[in-house]
Design a protein that fits this description.
By secondary structure, the protein is mostly helical. Helices cover about 45% and strands about 10% of the residues. Strand 3 (about 210-220) and strand 4 form a beta hairpin.
Amino acid sequence: MADQGDNGDQKLMNEPANHFKPRDGAGYVGLDNQGMTCYMNSLIQTFYMTPKLREGLFMLNDEELGVEYLGQEEEDEPPEHEVKQLTNMGFHKVGAKKALKKHPGDLMAAIEFLSTYDPSSDPDAQKPEKKGPKKKAWKIPIALRRLFARLKMLDQRSDSTKDLTDSFGWKGNQAMVQHDIHELNRKLLEALEGSMKTTKLPTLCNDLYRGTQIERRMCTVCGYMSENKSTYMDINVTVQGQKNIV
C-alpha cells in the first residue's frame, strides 16, 4: 500500500497547477499536455465532441470490452494493432511480436529487425497457434471510454491522458516526441475498429468516418469515361486566404 501511495503522490506532483480547479465558463474539461501531446489532445477532443462515437463507447458493457482481464496479459505484450500492421506487410506473427518487444513504439526499427528474421529457424514460430477466441482486455476502447466519462462528469479544469497513452503501448519518452496526427488518427481508428468487432457495435467507426471517393476520367476525343471508387477514413482540406480556420 505504501508503494501505491507514493505513486499517487508523485502523480499529484506532476499534475499542472490548474488541473483540479473547477471548470471554467465554457463548461468543458481540457486535456493535460504530457510534453508533446497537444496534437493528440486535439484529436481526442474531436472524438469526444462526436456524440455518436462517445455514446457508442458508453453503450458497450464491461464484458464486451474484457474489463475483467485488465492486468492479466503479459506486461510486455505489444499492442495488437501494431502486430496486425506488421503481419499485413507479410511478416510472421511471432516475429512481429518479438520485433515490437525489442523495439517498442519504433515501427521502422521493428521492420529492420524482421528483414533478417527467419521464422523457419525460430522454434517459437513452429509452435501451433492456439485456437479459439482469446480472452483479453481491449485496452484502447476501455481507456478512451473512461477518459470520455471523466471529461463528461468531472468538475475540474483538465484531466490526464496518461492511461490512454499507456493503452497505446507507449513507453519511455514517446509522449515527448511529436507524432503525425494524421497517422495517429488512422492507427487509433484501426485499433478501435479491431477491438469492437465482437461487440454490439462492430462497424461504429466505419459508419461514422468511412467515406467513398469516386474518381472519373473522360477522354476529350471519344468521350469515354472511366470510374474508380476508393474508400477513406479522413480527407485533406486545403484552407487558403484565411488567417485561421475558426
